[in-house]
Amino acid sequence: MLVTQVSLYIVGSLFCFVEKLRNKKIAFRMEFDRVQTIASLSFDKEAIPEEFIMPEKEQPAITTFRGLAPEIPAIDLSDPDQEKLVGLIADASKEWGIFQVINHGIPSDLIAELQGAGKKFFELPQEEKEVCARPRDSESIEGYGSKLLNDPQEKKTWVDHLFHRIWPPPSINYQFWPENPPSYREVNKEYAKYMRDVVDKLFTTLSLGLGLEGHVLKEAAGGEQIEYMLKINYYPPCPRPDLTLGVEAHTDLSAITILVPNEVPGLQIFKDDHWIEAKYIPDALIIHIGDQIEILSNGKYKAVLHRTTVAKDRARMSWPVFLEPPGELVVGPLPEFINKDNPPKFKTKKFKDYMYCKLNKLPQ
């Protein structure tokens, strides 16, 4: 009997010891995750770590165009002249791959509430933001975090982010929607409702601009199953904004990206061999043509090459919504744009395979 009690005591003690080690390991892992965001780094107020310093050919102080540059087209989405509207959007999509829209139907106070809720989230203590953190072993990009855990040989960019889907309802995972501030969820739900009308109008005008029926591009990109992936980019103040970037040069893997910026400048697009800064227009939406529309149009519409700079004394933020086909959807050049004189310029493949190659920098 005594031997049994001793054995049970030893087993119980071992169990408690292992459990304490496990809890310490979990706590350490949470702490390790927590410091892997820009906002929680400690650094010299006049310097940044070496891994954030871009090569000279990418440094914004050297490569940003300083002369008189053309402005990104700004288009009134409420223009009653449909033919004119279609022409303006088609021309901008072919020549620039980007344009801004005003009078788009999303109330300015709702945009302000969206921005306010996002700003409040990023001002929370780090441990509260970690509630929405992306799990380390997750194959999805949803959640709060940064890219600091990428390949140590790569240059780091000066940005933290929050990813989560806002439409359609079956694709939403509320695990990654902040509960604090309390207004966050309701504001994002309302924003998604208004966003749907803007999306439909953009797809329709882009289709008509290619000589197609208005429904073609949206259906080819996934129809009502198109996923709206919201990202909040948070670029903290940076002591050396001349040396680093918020986001390196890239095109979006989406079909279309619809972006709301704050008033701090930073979005730059590559046009005519120059990096040109986008003009800030209050309440305007910035529309990016993404890779999938370029593929569907067989190159008639151009995905815009763009990057983001940061500021020294102010935080820059942006709220892009990436319109992405469902993963299993096969995307390729539409038959209308292929003939003996115009062979396919892109491979036809499932969107999830395209995304995997793009995110892992593999050849398409």
TrEMBL record:
Any idea which UniProt keywords this protein has?
A: Dioxygenase, Flavonoid biosynthesis, Iron, Metal-binding, Oxidoreductase, Vitamin C
Gene3D superfamilies recorded: B-lactam Antibiotic, Isopenicillin N Synthase, Chain
Top-rank taxon? Eukaryota
Protein's UniProt keywords contain Signal: no
Q: Which residue windows are transmembrane per the record? A: none
Q: Name the cofactor(s).
A: L-ascorbate
A GO biological process of this protein is:
flavonoid biosynthetic process
Which PROSITE patterns does UniProt cross-reference here? FE2OG_OXY (PS51471)
Q: Which family does it belong to?
A: Belongs to the iron/ascorbate-dependent oxidoreductase family.
Q: What is this protein called?
A: Fe2OG dioxygenase domain-containing protein
Q: Which organism does this sequence originate in?
A: Populus trichocarpa
